[in-house]
Amino acid sequence: MKVAIYGYDTIVGKLVLEILEEDQNFKIDEFYPLSPIAGEYDAVPLRGKNYLISHVDEFDFAQADVALFLTTKDESERLVPKAQAAGCIVIDDSHLYAGIKNCPLVLREVNPYVIKEVQEKRLACVPLATSSEIVLSLAPLHDEYGIKQAVVTAMVSTSEHGELGTQTLARETMQLLNGVGVDVTDFPAQLAFNIHTRIGELNEQGVSSHEQIILHEVSTLMELSEHQLALTCVQVPTFYGHTLSVHVELEEDASLEDFKQALKQSSVLALEEEQEEGLISPVSCADLDSKLYIAHIRKFGRAAFDFTVVMDNTRHGEATAALDVLLLLQKALGQN
């Protein structure tokens, strides 16, 4: 395939390049790294070859079969229509279209068949990492037993906001450790050594804008209505790794062992108790493979269970999820 990447130097972009370097399943014939800065004379190495950087405003998207947008919402809003008009299929990870109906939302493990719609609309949307984490951890249980209701508290790392989040947390932490006060500008409150009880503005029902998007994406990706899922998102002062605390009530009862077996059926889930590393945390998760780690599983009465989930949100939730769509397109376009 001929692939363009806008945002190759972002947190997610660097991980995408790392995966493309390692995984030979991706058949890349031409590669176009795109920059918002004119006059870039550098090159991006990939698989032993250097590819010159092009200015995104001057790039002819007709040269690429697929373009990965790993950039900001503003840039996607400005450039996605241009790429589509040139016949290029866009995989958008800016979340510009998050929560919008009729936008092809793709999660390979759940709805790979949507790739046909992606080809027609020349657009694929990558779900928020928290949405993917909820769906991938609940889907095996819903398939096996049916979910009556789930209550999820999502502890969201600052990398959810890209480099702005991680750099703000690092700067505030350094300032406070050195006895210097912080000026809060880009976030509603201090990030370092702090927890935000909401992410985004609240509607009349008390649901935050961030939670609304996730509820919409979860209901789009699996047969779980917004009435079956109670969700609370809190911002925590960690750099990477989203953690879920889940209480789920099933339609059918199951033993604790059968519950664990249902989770093990998924190729993307792993149980902490079976790992040699011991305690799985957002920090340790980044050094492991791209799986979701289930821990602290307890049975809580008839057909009710509690557990936690940890996921490397930048690698699995963003980079791998976007490249999964690229692999589906590679197959659909007959280039496998």
TrEMBL record:
CDD domains in alphabetical order: ASADH_C_USG1_like, ASADH_USG1_N
InterPro entries: NAD(P)-bd_dom_sf, Semialdehyde_DH_NAD-bd, Semialdhyde_DH_dimer_dom
Any Pfam family matching the protein: Semialdhyde_dhC
Entry coiled-coil feature ranges: none
Molecular-function GO terms, alphabetical: NAD binding; oxidoreductase activity, acting on the aldehyde or oxo group of donors, NAD or NADP as acceptor; protein dimerization activity
Biological processes annotated in GO: amino acid biosynthetic process
Limits of the Semialdehyde dehydrogenase NAD-binding domain: 2-118
Family to which the UniProt record says this protein belongs: Belongs to the aspartate-semialdehyde dehydrogenase family.
Protein name per the record: Semialdehyde dehydrogenase NAD-binding domain-containing protein
Lineage of origin: Bacteria, Pseudomonadati, Pseudomonadota, Gammaproteobacteria, Aeromonadales
